[in-house]
Design a protein that fits this description.
alpha/beta, 377 residues
Length: 377
Amino acid sequence: MGEERITAANIRKINQNRVYQAIYHMRSTSKLQLVQSLEMGLSTVSHNLNQLYEAGLIKYDGFFASTGGRKAYVIRIVPDKHVSIGIELLKDRIYYVAVDLYGHIIHKYTVTIDYVSESDYYRYIGIQLNAFITQYGIAPSSILGVSIATQGIVSRDGFSIVYGAIMGNSQMRLENFQAHIPYRLHLEHDSKASAFLEHWNHPDIKNAAVLLLNYNLGGALIIDGNVQSGDHMRGGLIEHMCVQPDGPVCYCGKRGCLETFCSVESLENEAEMKAADFFSALRSTRPPRLQRIWRQYLQRLAFAIRNLSIVLDTTFILSGYLAPYLIPEDISTLLEMANDMTPFPLTADQLILGECGEYTPAVGGALYYIQEFLESV
């Protein structure tokens, strides 16, 4: 096997990527700081800055305070030079988000529609995507791609859903969307997309279990900095861990899955009200019945975290729809409950809250094309 030939063009590409990455991670910097941090010659840095500026990828954004000589330009990337779009498909709605190169939501949009395995449904997704792009003035040329996150296990090749009991979408194929969306497309399991977002937001955490507290519970594992799929693309499906063998029937057909106790759906069914109304009442008038329901919910979640912690010995990230509703008191109670049941207590820094709420899977999906772009500059 021959050695890969390193050409002058390769070196220029590597240098340009190093300069861009340095600006990206430092958020704001100067030419001199780049020279010093990259240990790169001034002429090389200057050349690459000119190339990146001409491509519209960086900007000169004011000046640093003077240290005695000429003020240095503040150099930043242009975060909205490119955007990625994430779409999450649920059984009764669709979430659209556009994120910039830092993964920040710049636009979001929700439509209500029931999923059906028909061409009109996929056409509707494309129509609403065009409406989203037009409404917010997103330049089509700036769009890196569209990622679709959905409830269902995605095949290893990424072309189809191989298990979709929640939505009944096992017939879903990437090609269903391609006729209606004129951009590069990526299909992802919603839990895996959520885990990718949480790792993006917490890059120092190499190992974690992500609990997606959505209408239907989800789970994913991050190990050695990578979201795990498992041998059969079923890795991390925490929601189907049995916590009560004679418990309620899960949508998977088995009894007592964690899904039947800790999903938003299970909480709403028990409280006989929507989650938003439940938490509004819980935090204000604090009815004893709702307090009892919420404490029982936390107890069951703590039981699952306790069992997982014995096997995984890792950080737990509570993500998804319910995350914004959780307050410090809830986290303390959850930690106390879990530790009452385990010989190996968790510490407070092992329970982390996600930040994007119900849009988590859509944002996580969109990051697929952001990461690809950053690696290619």
